[in-house]
Specification:
The chain is α+β, with helices and mostly antiparallel strands and 98 residues long. The protein has 3 helices and 2 strands.
Length: 98
Amino acid sequence: MKSHKYTITVRRTEDKDGNPTDGPAITFTATNHDELTEIVRRMQDAGLFPPDEAAAFAIGLKLFGETMLLHRDSALFTEMRPHFMDFMKKLKASLKDV
């Protein structure tokens, strides 16, 4: 399966009390069969969540879904797979006109 390749970096910029932090970043490479910037744009345009939350939701969901797809034979995902597929169908239907 052909995939787009992404470098993901997560860096904490504030602690839970709102104080600035300068901790280490987590950086990793991930692949996805979808073009993630387009997915994020569509989620943001849909207005379901504020823009940053829409981006976090879209990226998290797509990374999780791709991992589940790559490991579709894993017993870990057996019970969740049908529910995830139903959720994705519902989500895609709600974004159809965006």
